[in-house]
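Example protein
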Amino acid sequence: MSVRHLLAAAAALVGGLVLATQAAAQVLGQPDPVSSYTLTAGRFWSLVAALLGLIGVVLGGLALARSAGRIGRGTGRRGAIVGLVAGLAGAVIGGLVVAAAEGGPGTGYGIVGGYIALVIGLTAMALGGLALTRSRRTVDRRTV
């Protein structure tokens, strides 16, 4: 799979997630108080965003370890790109949840999970970007 195909698939994934989060942002408004154990739409989307960010952190960390030569062979460019895109998607969805929340913690809008997803997504983006930068340096040194 070429990098172009991978980037096209990632763009389609992010575009689909953006459309889904826009639709979910309309559902996030809940006037009634909810229980602590109720899985509301806001909590669900913040959970999805945090899981995407966590996947991005794992893939970005593995790609970073591969680019440093600690695990396996290869440069880990695919893992870095996928980690970067998953982190971006997690951060965007987490930001939308935080922006759509009308109440504070405990109201069912998922604001705490949204902030956690933002942090995890930004961490995944940093790891993926660092791994991508290191893999480019490794490729440049091999060609020289």
User: Anything to note?
Assistant: The first helix runs from residue 3 to 27. Residues 26 and 108 are 14 Å apart (CA to CA). The chain is about 75% helix and 0% strand. The chain has a mean pLDDT of 78.
